[in-house]
Amino acid sequence: MDLLLALIAGLITGFVFTLIKLPIPAPPVWSGVVGIIGVLSGSQLFNYLFR
């Protein structure tokens, strides 16, 4: 459910920012998105291994 709400919030945010011609508050390329996922995954892996 949290993922669905986050997706909906992101879609609305992206739509509104584009509508009013502001730069989107996210990396403009997929490599940036993958980098963010990598940072989150690394943090989760650390917590799994050492806590």
Can you walk through the features of this model?
Keywords: Membrane, Transmembrane, Transmembrane helix. This is XapX domain protein. InterPro entries: DUF1427, XapX_domain. It holds the Pfam family DUF1427. The chain is mainly alpha-helical and 51 residues long. The chain has one domain (2-50). The protein is 76% helix and 0% strand. It has two helices and no strands.
Give a nutshell description of this structure.
It holds the Pfam family DUF1427. This protein is mostly helical and 51 residues long.
Alpha-carbon distance between the two ends: 26 Å
Mean pLDDT across the residues is 91
Estimate what percentage of residues fall within beta strands.
under 5%
- Class computed from helices, strands and strand pairing: mainly alpha
Notable traits:
0% strand; single chain; XapX_domain; mainly alpha; 51 residues; XapX domain protein; membrane; transmembrane; 2 helices; DUF1427
Write the layout of secondary structure elements.
Blueprint: H1 2-19, H2 30-50
Keywords: Membrane, Transmembrane, Transmembrane helix
Protein name: XapX domain protein
Transmembrane segments: 28-50
